[in-house]
Amino acid sequence: MTTTDTATLLAAYDDQMRGAPPTPPTGVTYQQDGPLLRIVGQFRGFVSGPRDLGVEGEALDELIARQKDFFAARGEALEWKTRSHDTPPDLTERLRAAGFAPEERETVLVGRAAGMAVKEPGLPDGVTVRRVTADADMHRIAAMESAVWGQDWSALADDLIGRVATAPDDIAVYLAEADGEVVSAAWLVFRPGTEFASLWGGSTLTAWRGRGVYRALVALRAALAASRGVTFLHVDASDDSAPVLRRLGMHAITTTTPYVWTPSAG
């Protein structure tokens, strides 16, 4: 892909994927504070802005402090989502000075849904994939994620249940099973009013990695997205997932790093 093509994908991402999704899950609200989108009601607070925040210096420090004060009053941690191409360039320096700590950097990838779509991708023997909406399956997915990451991911079940209940046409959740065990899961989130849909999840139990399950879940979601007229798929990918997604036709356009502050750290 040429530099011009990458710039086109990045411009589309900045124009269409930096604002609020159209329908918040049950119990979640979107608020605007100056240039920032603030999301309230998730397991921790979340803020994100446009490519250029349009504030700097003391005004930026005040904007950062307001977010801390807001979520401190709720007793919640706060994630500030940054991208490497954003301005002002000293945003992350000021976040660190305010007590935010960086988590793992991810690569933002964008690809064309039609080029990645496979309606019947190959799966390992004994593995089946199905689209799910039942609460019980969301809890099984959260338990699998907890096992993969060694952390309590139970809040994920509530998030998925809320999304399905609020806007069932905007999310498609898939799980892969073998002998009654959830071995992987992934979901596709549509962004009505844009050319994009996002790929989330994709965690796989260690014993089933490298056997095509992850690739199959990508292909199935790409096929669904393409069938609904989606042009672009977006992923915030870990270092493990990014090489696979590049081989499937996605392109790196920037990186993203969450900066997290907690009331105890503040």
Write a concise synopsis of the structure shown.
With about 270 residues, the chain is of the alpha+beta class. It contains eight helices and twelve strands.
Description:
This protein has 266 residues and is an alpha+beta fold. It folds into two domains: 20-106 and 256-261, Aminopeptidase (3-Layer(aba) Sandwich); 111-255, Aminopeptidase (3-Layer(aba) Sandwich), CATH 3.40.630.30. Helix content is 35%, strand content 30%. The chain is built from eight helices and twelve strands. The chain has helices at 3-16, 57-73, 91-97, 113-116, 135-149, 154-166, 213-227, 241-247, and strands spanning 29-33, 36-40, 45-48, 78-83, 101-102, 106-112, 127-132, 171-178, 181-190, 196-204, 232-237, 251-261. Strands 1, 2, 3, 4, 5, 6, 7, 8, 9, 10, 11 and 12 form a twelve-stranded mixed β-sheet that branches. The chain is globular and about 60 Å long. The termini are far apart. The relative contact order is 0.20.
Beta-strand proportion:
25-35%
- CATH architecture of the largest domain, by name, is 3-Layer(aba) Sandwich
The gross shape turns out to be globular
Calculate the mean pLDDT score and round it: 94
Classify the oligomer.
single chain
The number of helices is 8
- Show unreliable segments: none
Q: From the 3D structure, determine the CATH topology of the largest domain.
A: Aminopeptidase
Per CATH, the class of the largest domain reads: Alpha Beta
Q: Terminal Cα separation, in Å?
A: 44 Å
Number of strands: 12
The topology string of helices and strands comes to HEEEHEHEEHEHHEEEHEHE
Rg: 19 Å
Range of helix content: 25-40%
Helix vs. strand class: alpha+beta
* Relevant CATH superfamily of the largest domain: Gcn5-related N-acetyltransferase (GNAT)
